[in-house]
């Protein structure tokens, strides 16, 4: 009576191995699903960044306001007749 039970348990264990640990087993499916969610999140962030860059490019192509704003803040340029006043920050 004991041998058939042992053989049955071993047979179930052998049949369960591919389901859990095999090439297409549940553990692999869970890992790939986790990777898929991570990649989708990265893609969402990159899509938002690309949308912002696309809006900035459109703005730079369409008008002079964006170019003027960049020139003022990044290069410190002023229009003719304007006076640039710089006040240094005091150290605490």
Note the total helix count.
3
Mean pLDDT, to the nearest integer, reads: 85
Oligomer: single chain
Class derived from helix and strand content: mainly alpha
Q: Span from first to last CA?
A: 87 Å
Which strand-content bin applies to the residues? Answer: under 5%
Binned, the helix content reads over 70%
Largest sheet: none
Total count of strands? 0
Rg, Cα atoms, Å: 32 Å
Low-confidence stretches: none
Order of helices and strands: HHH
Question: How does this structure look, described?
Answer:
By secondary structure, this protein is mostly helical. The protein has a domain of 63 residues. 75% of the residues lie in helices and 0% in strands. The longest helix is centred in the middle third of the chain and has 37 residues. One of its GO terms (biological process) is FtsZ-dependent cytokinesis.
Present the secondary structure layout:
Blueprint: H1 2-21, H2 26-62, H3 64-75
Helix pairs in contact: 2-3
Protein name: Cell division protein FtsB
Subcellular location: Cell inner membrane
GO biological process, one term: FtsZ-dependent cytokinesis
Question: What attributes does this structure have?
Answer:
92 residues; mainly alpha; 0% strand; rod-shaped
What would you say about this model in short?
This protein is an all-alpha fold and 92 residues long. The chain has helices at 2-21, 26-62, 64-75.
């Amino acid at each position: 009576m004991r041998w058939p039970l042992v053989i049955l348990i071993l047979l179930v264990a052998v049949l369960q191995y591919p389901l859990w640990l095999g090439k297409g087993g549940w553990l692999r499916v869970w890992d790939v699903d986790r990777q898929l969610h991570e990649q989708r999140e990265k893609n969402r962030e990159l899509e938002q960044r690309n949308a912002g860059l696309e809006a900035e490019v459109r703005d730079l192509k369409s008008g002079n306001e964006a170019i003027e704003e960049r020139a003022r803040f990044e290069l410190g340029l002023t229009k003719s007749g304007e006076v640039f006043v710089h006040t240094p920050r005091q150290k605490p």
